[in-house]
Amino acid sequence: MGLRKLWILVGLLSPSLASALTLDEAIERAEAKYPDIAAANAAIAAARARVPQSKAWQDPMFAVRLYQVPISFESFPVMWEIAQTIPFPGKLGARGRAAEASVDVAKLDRETRALAVRQRVARAYFRAKAAERLAKIYAEFDALYEQTLRLVSSRLSVGPSNLADIPRIEADRAALKIDLLEFETSRRLALIEMAALLAYPNADRVPRLTTEPALRDIPEAASLAKTAIARPDLATLGASIREAQAEVAARKKEHLPDFMVSGSYMANFGGMTDMWSLGVGVNVPLFYRSKQKKAVEEAMAMVRERERRLDTRALEAGVQVEQARERIRIAAAHVRLHQVTLIPLALRVLHAARTSFAVGQGDLFAILDGLRQLVGHHRDRERYLGEFEARWVDLEEAVGRPIREKKIHHGDTETRSGQKRGGK
């Protein structure tokens, strides 16, 4: 069975062939289905629920007690008592602001997780797509080997020729099939990851991938650097700094005293007259140095630690942007070199070798060498195009947002016998 038929059979056996899935649709589905995003949403809800708790007064205390009951039970005094703690003005507001800051941290953390999920989906998507494209290209080259086999067979039928030529062709075709199995393995592994990210039952249920890899203009470094400053993980650290600062302000008020007011009524059954009482109390921060002061110092240290982490992460972001841009530039240069120069040259060499062989002036080695070069250049072109997409995802990770630049079209790529593969 030829590679083309084998590839068609693989496609027909896939239950997801009838449906299609673009990269944007895959990302949208992952953001809606992946459990880590749901966990981040739950964390936001939990943070919001803590805000009213932090602003609320303590519950009042109500008590009923027997009070100074004589052993003889000549009287039976019963006391009802109620007490309420009143926080010092400003303490609950400071606690509430600290809790509200944690909501901002939770929201930005969700954006960070969503970006990570988008990156995982994009990487798996283009790994699967690269393997699929290579398999289709190899199927086309299998047809070239089939043509070469017929050419050699016709030469054997009309005159003397090297009997080892046909086994050589079959050996090269077998090598293509081995590569095809590797491509299919790579595609399946990528689809397995996509099925988990997109909540499909299994890899076979992932729809057909339709977004093709393509070169794009590389954004200017200055604009990317400005964008990277606002990426979600840096914004999360910035929000965590504000959260820690609000915690400092709240803890600075914790040494201020809380007040307590109470009232009671005592009914004396069978004895003295009924009585009532009112009371006011205050807590005294006797252990301020070892409690409230240390709590403030702890919160201030947290602010400094997060500020240094933000400085470090910002420096790393700049490095990541520059490295990603450089890797994208190199990958794009490789793609252009293969598409514009190496593949056309290899195709010319192959045509010349086949023409010489057809008129009896060349040997099969030149044809096979030309085929191997052409296969290798196409394989490398697709590999570097996949590298371009992978490094583009790295760039999006470095700046913290999707980057949509204009696609670059370099025309169609000739494959076998001068036939063109339409680019998208």
Folded structure, characterized:
The protein is α+β, with helices and mostly antiparallel strands. The chain is built from nine helices and eight strands. It has a four-stranded antiparallel sheet with strand order 2-3-5-6, with no helix packed on it. A two-stranded parallel sheet has the order 1-4. Strands 7-8 form a two-stranded antiparallel ribbon. The protein starts with a helix and ends with a strand.
Order of helices and strands: HEHHEEHHEHHEEHHEE
Average pLDDT value? 83
Rg over CA atoms:
37 Å
What can be said about the biggest beta sheet? 4 strands, antiparallel
Strand order of the largest sheet: 2-3-5-6
Q: Which residues sit in consecutive blocks of at least 5 with pLDDT less than 50? A: 410-424
Counting DSSP E segments of at least 2 residues, the number of strands comes to 8
What structural class is derived from the secondary structure elements? alpha+beta
Beta fraction = 5-15%
Q: How many helices in DSSP terms? A: 9
The dominant shape is: elongated
User: Helix amount, in percent?
Assistant: 55-70%
Distance N terminus to C terminus? 29 Å
Topology summary:
Elements lengths: L2 H11 L6 E2 L1 H11 L1 H21 L5 E6 L9 E11 L4 H68 L6 H34 L9 E2 L11 H9 L2 H21 L6 E11 L5 E8 L9 H67 L5 H36 L13 E2 L5 E2 L3
Parallel strand pairs: 1-4
Antiparallel strand pairs: 2-3, 3-5, 5-6, 7-8
Helix pairs in contact: 1-4, 2-4, 3-4, 4-5, 4-7, 4-9, 6-8, 7-8, 8-9
Outline of the structure:
By secondary structure, the protein is an alpha+beta fold. The protein is built from nine helices and eight strands.
